[in-house]
Amino acid sequence: MRVDLAACYRLVALYGWTDLVFTHISARVPGPEHHFLINPYGMLFDEITASSLIKIDQHCNKLSDSPHPVNPAGFIIHSCIHAARHDVGCVLHTHTRAGVAVSAQKDGVLPISQQSSFVLSSLAYHDYEGIAVRPEEQPRLQADLGNATFLMLRNHGLLTVGKTVADAFLSMYAFETACQIQIAAQSGGEALVRVDPRIIEGVAHAFRVQGVEGSLIWPALLRKLDRIDPGYRH
After folding, report:
1. Ramachandran area for residue 42 (φ above 0: left; ψ -120 to 50: alpha; else beta)
2. What does pTM read for this prediction?
3. Which of 3, 53, 76, 98 gives a 20 to 30 Å CA spacing to 90?
4. Long-range pairs for 200-207 at CB < 8 Å and ≥24 separation?
5. β-sheet with 123-126: strand ranges across
6. Three-state secondary-structure class, residue 123
7. Mean pLDDT for each 10-residue chunk of the chain (234 residues)?
């Protein structure tokens, strides 16, 4: 789990989805204790290794030695999602330019691409309440996410959940790409062709038929990282 999560941080850096040190990815530690791993606050994502990840409990108590603190906003967001969604093994949150730009648009994600059709098949929204440091926001985050895979945090960014780290990463790849395509398409100044709603309704089934899930691409992504710098495994 540590190696997969460290790899995810490195991939987020590689694909340019970082916001210095101000976003976060967490992974549930296997077992009944409801502990999870999160990044050491202050380290760049391309510095993170398996051993540097911090294990914490549902009260933000550090259960592994680290000279770094835990991002308070990261704890507020991730702990409540892990508490509410026992099917979720990983929570991935970003502040990319395209993601924040679309999150500021009234209509949110538009059905204008194959990637957006995948996102729209399981998308929820959460209104902006300021920097997420107040515990009273947690029930609203849980309620707004519900059983969705994709959560657009209005005026803030993107969030995905997955059974595995690989699943959460693949979902974020689709989410981020859909937002980039939308901003690019809108910049052309032409009327946009929308995907038929009936097609979107069948997208989840189509992806299952295609075998599109994190486990399909994850080994290749790890090989890519190993060619660049296998240090994330340490």
Report:
1. left
2. 0.95
3. 98
4. 200/111, 200/117, 200/120, 200/121, 201/121, 203/117, 203/118, 203/120, 203/121, 204/121, 204/122, 207/118
5. 54-56, 36-38, 24-28, 90-94, 157-162, 150-153, 123-126
6. strand
7. 98 98 95 91 97 92 90 90 95 98 98 95 96 94 97 98 96 98 96 92 70 87 98 98
